[in-house]
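About this split. The held-out portion is used to measure sequence recovery: a designer receives only the structure tokens and must propose an amino acid at every position. Recovery is the fraction of positions where the proposal matches the reference. Here is one held-out target exactly as it appears in the evaluation file.
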């Protein structure tokens, strides 16, 4: 995971322009991965119903509520501590009336209405050694939610014209695409994320639809032009959130 610069963090919280994210009780802290997804993901309509799978601190849910003022957002997480933390962050935000946080496993979650958009920053260590901390293992490793399970759940909960967006490590893309294809998803948009211009993409922002597209949209994103110098692309993407 990429982590944000220390200027945004004080006493285990991050201050954004319109909200504050506390994270003391969450295994996975606020990082650039979640911020990228929250700023990049699209919704079909302004009044979309959005589901954030594995909401953690509630960061992505808060970002989407800020970006889409008519949308309603549901964040779910299997980790009770994270759910409690996310609820506190939401209640102290300007978007409390449009965001709901629930303690739930997406594999067992049902919703008759369905969702117009689903987002997820899923567990990203696949087939790797787990850590002794159960909370961090659940948040970081796919033992708690495989790509197959994630895709099956997202396809079941997404409306026919809905959009499913994720952020993943580049090395996991082939596994994710295979799982998505088996469930009936079609790749529609990809953004390759480089930390600096000369480095290979370490993360990818991925978007899936339930129907094929005429042309796959491929984007490039660079976080820093040089050490501690944010690129114009990253500044523009996050300008509504970062204080400076």
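Reference sequence for scoring:
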């Amino acid at each position: 995971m990429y982590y944000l610069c220390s200027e945004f963090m004080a006493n285990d919280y991050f201050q954004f322009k319109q909200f504050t994210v506390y994270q003391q009780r969450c295994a996975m802290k606020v990082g650039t991965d979640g911020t990228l997804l929250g700023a990049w993901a699209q919704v079909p309509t302004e009044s979309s119903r959005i589901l954030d799978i594995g909401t953690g601190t509630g960061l992505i849910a808060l970002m989407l509520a800020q970006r889409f003022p008519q949308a309603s957002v549901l964040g779910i997480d299997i980790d009770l501590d994270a759910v409690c933390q996310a609820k506190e962050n939401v209640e102290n935000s300007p978007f409390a009336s449009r965001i709901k946080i629930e303690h739930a496993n997406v594999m067992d979650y049902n919703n008759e209405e369905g969702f117009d958009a689903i987002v997820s920053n899923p567990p990203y260590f696949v087939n790797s050694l787990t850590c002794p901390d159960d909370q961090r293992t659940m948040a970081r490793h796919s033992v708690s939610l495989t790509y197959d399970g994630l895709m099956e759940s997202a396809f079941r909960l997404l409306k026919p014209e809905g959009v499913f967006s994720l952020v993943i490590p580049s090395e996991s893309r082939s596994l994710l695409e295979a799982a998505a294809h088996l469930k009936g998803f079609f790749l529609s948009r990809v953004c390759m994320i480089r930390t600096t211009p000369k480095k290979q993409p370490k993360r990818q922002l991925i978007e899936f639809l339930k129907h094929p597209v005429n042309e796959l949209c491929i984007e490039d994103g660079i976080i820093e032009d040089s050490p501690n110098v944010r690129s114009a692309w990253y500044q523009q993407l996050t300008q509504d959130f970062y204080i400076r």
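Annotator remark: Confidence is low (pLDDT under 50) at residues 1-8, 125-131, 135-142.
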